[in-house]
Amino acid sequence: MLLISLAVATIAICPPKAQSQNVDATIKRAIAAWSRVKTFRATFEQSITNPLTGSSMLSRGELQQRKPNRLAITFTDPVGDRIIGDGKFVWVYLQSATPGQVIKLANTDAGAASTDLIGQFLTTPRSKYTASDAGADRVGDRAARAIVLLAKPGERLPFVRAKVWVDGADGLIRQFESTDANGITRKVRLLTLRPNATVNDSVFSFKVPTGVRVIEQ
Question: What is the pTM (predicted TM-score) of this model?
Answer without folding.
Answer: 0.85
